[in-house]
Design goal:
single chain, mainly alpha, 9 helices, 72% helix, 0% strand
Length: 248
Amino acid sequence: MAATPPFEADPAAYEAWAAREVAQWRAAVLKPAGPLARGARGLQQRVNRAIPEKVHAAVTTAVERMTRTILTGADLVSGPPLQGLSLAERDRRALKAIDDHRKVAAVEGGVAGAGGFWLAVADFPALMMIKIRLLFDLAGIYGHDGEAFSERLFVLHVFQLAFSSAEHRARVFAALPGWDARAHPADFAHFDWRSFQQEYRDYIDLAKLAQMIPVIGAPVGAVVNWRLLDRLGETAVGAYRMRWLERA
């Protein structure tokens, strides 16, 4: 995560600090891909062509299951959205939730990485469920109702923002400012699932495929899962802080 929040500051000072953090976060999200990132993207595309189709099929199936869970899952919301809390207290609870989910993801990744190819493949849907549960927990912490369709749509945007190429991130981010002031679709009929799946797969494939290598799979799985949850948490906190400050 980014800088340690000054939790003891008064609300106005804390929100001023949060605004600076959001500005830095926004700049990082919108930063164009550099030569290294472009090279990694090209390498990813070459690797994708060399990966056995059964691996691609397993990952695609896992992503599709996750999207269906987002569409229909009734058990993702752990309770009513929190009301009457300051931004500092919401951030405090958010960081605790992120830490809890990182630890679970690291253990799960280590076990899967030690278990060989098929356990590593099974890690994809398990890890995605941990990610989605984290996002729904954070929605509630920041006072938003995860049962609402517009919030589920926001969760999908945050997920894409965390795990996409620089070009796709810019397109996704453009939909976030002013989110609560706009009307949103009533269903996912026009949501671009194909881009959603491909961007996610391209982002994590190189790291997660190393988890399938004998001997090093367990430590790689633990570290990669930890970092993926850390990135998702930081992205979500930035997005929810931005919404909070827009309403302030």
